Amino acid sequence: MKPTLMFLMTIAGAPAVYAQNPLSTELRGDYNGIKRDITNAADRMSDADYDYKPSEGNTRTFGQIIGHIADVQLALCAMAKGEQKRGSAEQTKTSKVDLVAALKESFDYCDGVYNALTDASGAEMIKVFGRDRSRFGTLNFNVAHNNEMYGQIVVYYRAKGISPPSTAHRQMNQGKKKQYRPAISIQC
Question: What is the CATH number of the domain that holds 109?
């Protein structure tokens, strides 16, 4: 099949999928947006700055934040899938290479869970940390947690004098007439 025909078939089918599953379709879009920002942030931070933390005390290093995201996300997506998985990246990994790999592994695992979600399967009740919760609510909590953690990442980027990935495009486009604007974005 020619690429143009495949593209047109995909576009034509998109409204139908959205109409049948509006909640899960929107949740998948939110997940993919924060996935992009976190992945870009993990990739863009230098190897040396994975040990960085803006203040002493109980503050996590940048690397520990990335590990924490991978661990929590893996656990939540596993619960939504009816499995048990636990990561240990936050406690056991320190290098950028290892932490980015753990983050990618968690996103790859979650991709399958989000892609399989429908509004009907999202309404099913599952056990999450010992209590009943909908599958949709569990996966929505994962998106919310990822957004909270990205907020912390933004602070680390700003403390280093670097624009975070979600706003870096604005600096690149300053002075240009046409500016890239994502469909939905939260500016940090």
Answer: 1.20.120.450
What pTM, to 2 d.p., does this model score? 0.82
Runs of H (alpha helix) within 21-134: 22-44, 62-81, 89-92, 96-116, 119-122
Would 157 be classed as within a structural domain? yes
Q: CA-to-CA distance for 114 and 110, rounded, in angstroms?
A: 6
Could you give the CA distance from residue 156 to residue 176 in angstroms, rounded to a whole number?
Answer: 28
Residue pair 77/28 in contact (Cβ under 8 Å)? The answer is: no
**Tokens representing residue 177 in the block:** 């007439």
Inside any domain, residue 176 = no
Reported as a single tens digit per residue, the pLDDT across 110-151 is 999 999 999 999 999 999 999 999 999 999 999 999 999 999
Task: Please state, as a whole number, how many other Cβ atoms lie within 10 Å of the Cβ of residue 126.
Answer: 16
185 vs 77: CA distance, rounded Å: 24
d(CA 93, CA 14): 40
> Is residue 13 a part of any domain in this protein?
no
Domain count, the chain: 1
Q: End-to-end alpha-carbon separation of the chain, Å?
A: 42
Sign of CA dihedral 150, 151, 152, 156: positive
142, containing H or E segment:
helix 135-159
* Residue-number span of the structural domain to which 52 is assigned: 20-161
In a domain, 15, yes or no: no
